[in-house]
Amino acid sequence: MNAAIPRIGVFGSMFNPPHVAHVVLCQEALWQLGLQRVILVPAGLPSHRAAPAESAELRLRLTQAAIAGTPGLTVSRVEVDRDGPSFMVDTLRELANRYPGTDLVLLIGEDQLAQLGAWHEAEQIPQLARLGVARRPGTRLAGAERAAVEWIDMPRLEVSSSDIRGRVAAGRPIRHLVPEGVRALIEAEGLYR
Questions:
Q1: Using the 8-state DSSP alphabet, how is residue 89 labeled?
Q2: Residue 138: pLDDT band by 50, 70, 90 thresholds?
Q3: 105 contact partners, CB below 8 Å, separation of at least 6
Q4: Using one digit for the tens of pLDDT, what is the confidence trace for 21-56?
Q5: What gap in Å lies between CA 56 and CA 78, rounded to an integer?
Q6: Domains in the chain, CATH or no CATH each
């Protein structure tokens, strides 16, 4: 790695809703990979599943609430504003054009590394960005230790967006599982009921 070239992390997700594990991954990537910042990219129209009931605009607002006041983290509208399905390869191309002279680092979980070959134009992704991969408990890929990735060690956090939605629907508390701004927005807008 050339320390003179700024490095920007790119973390895409549905963020439906964003939770503490998302924020922890971004913070760990900033620190462990020496990134200048991490750009969180809420998916616009998902290419690999049905669109959620929550709009891309709402998920963008939730993501902004999740990182409010957190140094080094920003949110991009790149996929929310794009027509058609969201493909990470297109997002990386656009961000490379917006931030010339930087190295992009795509942040994914180890489980996603196992699926990377099935992504749209997967062969282009390593040409557009390095891979920053968060180790996931219970996921060990044969030969992954030889992959051209930068590994991110994270504390074990057993939280997922689907669990958060289920807890809200059941009337269970979500405080400390999501950033406070996300919890407040979910409550104020009556989301996931």
A1: H
A2: low
A3: 7, 8, 9, 10, 29, 33, 35, 129, 130, 131, 132, 150
A4: 999 999 999 999 999 999 999 999 888 788 899 999
A5: 11
A6: 7-138+145-157 (3.40.50.620)
